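in:
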């Protein structure tokens, strides 16, 4: 049981620190927020980012209900051939050719 209490305190401490920083910085009392679903693989940064986003929305839009939806992002580093094709109507012009042709700087 002690481990669960300790883990909860460790997770709540950054929330309290961020809440106090918001209070000092904006002169505004942030609401208590739930800690959210705890995961050992989730970085503390993602919790802090969610708290800050929610508090900013509450501060800027008082009275509006804030509901943050989170999804796990699965990045792929595979090449996408469609991104290598020039846009329609570009007639083979690339961005770099356009920049080079229009540059009147010392390297032209």
């Amino acid at each position: 049981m002690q481990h669960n209490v300790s883990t909860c305190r460790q997770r709540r401490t950054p929330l309290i620190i961020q809440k106090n920083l918001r209070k000092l910085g904006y002169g505004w009392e942030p609401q208590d927020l739930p800690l959210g679903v705890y995961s050992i693989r989730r970085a503390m940064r993602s919790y802090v980012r969610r708290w800050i986003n929610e508090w900013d929305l509450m501060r800027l839009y008082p009275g509006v209900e804030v509901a943050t939806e989170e999804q796990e992002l699965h990045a792929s580093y595979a090449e996408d051939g469609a991104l290598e094709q020039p846009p329609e109507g570009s007639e083979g012009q690339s961005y770099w050719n356009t920049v080079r042709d229009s540059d009147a700087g010392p390297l032209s």
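note: Residues 15 and 48 are 7 Å apart (CA to CA).
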